[in-house]
Amino acid sequence: MHLAIDQANEQKITIDGKPVTFKMVSEDDQADPKTGTTVAQKLVDEKVAAVIGHLNSGVSIPASEVYAKAGIPMISGSATNPQLTERGLKTVFRTVGRDDQQGPAIASYIASELKAKKVAIADDKTAYGEGLANEVEKTLKGDKVSIVGRERTTDKETDFKAILTKIKAKNPDVIFYGGMDATGGPLLKQARELGIKAVFAFGDGACTDEMSKLAGQSAEGMVCSQAGLPREAADPQFVKAFNAKYGEIKQYAPYFYDGTLAIIEAMKKANSTDPAKFAPEIFNVSFKGATGTVEFDQKGDRKNAEMTIFKMEGGKVKPVAIVKNGKTTPFAQYVAGGADASAAAATPAAGSTPAAAPAEPAKDEKKADKADTTKKK
């Protein structure tokens, strides 16, 4: 987000005939819904022009209600629960796909590529984990795959042996877990300690290199999905600029970057930094960002969102396939094809990071912000 804001300020953008400066205000919602709404109200009180965040669906959903009442647009680069954009709010957007797109993608991979006949499913009872697990279960059942167990834990649990023992007795080919890497890693490690040999599959919350640190060698061979294109397919100009300033690209960085660009593009279209005037224009933006063409549908969802399937190899999650509009394409083939979605030729629009809002001439600096979180969904 900082990168997008810095780039926008370097361009010396003028809106309504006046030079504007974008400023980032950052708050930590601690991945907690209660804290998230408190943070949201604080940002509203500070009169930010837009919010780029939050990270987790469980926080994004209640926080978005606060922003909606104030007429402040919010764009998440990581919240995937469908409910986020299913409430008719005209100020809520996301630059990634939804769980009802991601769930079917990883489920189809489990059925067609892993050729699983029996699958056990567990989740962490969060809006993200449970929602994704439900979508996976629904798709697998539609593909005639037998669901041999459905277990529940929490996002604070550390001992998973009780549910794993139940699952082991069912002898599944694959175990899908809806949750974050903080619990997914220990769960996977404990499963191997119990002698469970099934392939493990996860959603984007646990589709991270951190899994190899938390589960060690046990993480090798796991498969997972992310709602969007992988960082390996991000626009080269973005990659170069990001690496120069911050080093390795983190999972959702390109999506929050593009969320910031969307806000700035909408301001340009409206020729205003007033949320009441530029928020409606977010539905009309269309530009080449770090993650390809960015456009939103009438709900605020990303149009034509891709899903990526990864496999853990050598301690790193590596992309193996791209799923778009129900079609699965090997990653190497997808990139070689030079598809727009690969963003290979993307040229970022003026951009910044957190919810950044241009400040009107020097003194009146409009602030845009992001609810800074270290966890997800």
Largest sheet: 8 strands, mixed
Instruction: Give the mean pLDDT.
Output: 89
Beginning-to-end CA distance, first to last residue: 18 Å
Gyration radius, in Å: 20 Å
Helix content: 25-40%
CA-based shape: globular
* Structural class by helix and strand composition: alpha/beta
Tell me how many strands there are: 18
Oligomeric state of the chains present here: single chain
At a glance:
With 377 residues, this protein is of the alpha/beta class. Helices cover 36% and strands 22% of the residues.
Describe, in plain words, how this protein is organized in 3D.
It is a single chain. The protein has 377 residues and is α/β, with parallel strands linked by helices. It folds into 2 domains: 2-95 and 233-305 and 361-372, Rossmann fold (3-Layer(aba) Sandwich); 99-226, 3-Layer(aba) Sandwich (Rossmann fold). The protein has helices at 2-10, 33-45, 57-70, 99-112, 127-142, 161-170, 181-193, 210-215, 236-246, 253-270, 275-278, 331-336, and strands at residues 14-15, 18-19, 21-28, 48-52, 74-76, 92-94, 118-123, 146-152, 174-178, 199-202, 223-226, 287-289, 292-294, 307-313, 316-324, 327-330, 357-359, 367-372. The strands form 4 sheets. The protein has an 8-stranded mixed sheet, with helices on both faces. It has a 6-stranded mixed sheet with strand order 6-5-4-18-3-17, sandwiched between helices. Helix 7 (181-193) links the parallel strand 9 (174-178) and strand 10 (199-202). Helix 1 (2-10) packs parallel to helix 10, helix 2 packs parallel to helix 3 (57-70) and helix 4 (99-112) packs across helix 5. The longest helix has 18 residues, at 253-270. It is globular and about 70 Å long. Mean pLDDT is 89; it is low at 339-377.
